[in-house]
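Morning, I've got a small favour to ask if you have a moment. I've dropped the whole record in just underneath, so have a look.
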Amino acid sequence: MKVDLNADAAEGCGQDEQLLTIVSSANVCCGLHAGSYAEMLVTLQLAKKNNVRVGAHPGLDDRENFGRTNQALDEEGYRALMRYQLGATKALCDLVGVTLEYVKPHGALYNQAAVDEALSDILVTEIKLFDPRLKVMGLYGGYLVKSAKNHGLEAISEVFADRNYENDGSLVSRSKDNALITDTDEATKHVLQMITEGVVTSVSGEKVPVEAQSICLHGDGEHAILFAKEIKKQLELKGIEISAA
């Protein structure tokens, strides 16, 4: 059994060098919500060195809030937002000599697309226009994954190691105190349940179905390195390989 372990990277959080020796996929920040071209370059070089799969992690133009505040753009605005960031990431991938394999929106853009069918269609059609070989990573059960499949792109359903879930399968809002999982043992049990049982226990105790093709760790999280090491260790003890293949 195999599962992908992905982490957000190139966001200027100082943990990429260690994280990219553990994870199998790197969501490379495209320089708008955080990071810079220099950090993208270093991250891509680390991904190449460690044979880590590379994905673009485009976000809203919102450094002040780390791309985590909702915005309402028109269709042209969303298309330009995506094209600008995908183009920059692809150019640096070509410079380093790595392949851009998937796209995973960041923060508010990710969460908005998960619940907004029209927005998810805009993002997916723009990704397809840019490169129809790109895969789309999104929240299991969300519109982004559904839209990717509807438009003939390969979708990667992901779950979150460090986030709690609501009964409808959505992530608990970061505005709530119980949004984040900060205990290593809790995060590991959370991940193992999702992979081995195909369900996640919501904050109210309900068992909610999930499909864990990829597990996400937030690279800006205080416990990111510790979580990554322990999750990988426990998965391997269960005979589950960390791999993007």
Observations:
- The mean pLDDT is 95.
- The longest strand covers residues 2-9.
- The chain has one domain: 2-242.
- The CA atoms of residues 188 and 230 lie 7 Å apart.
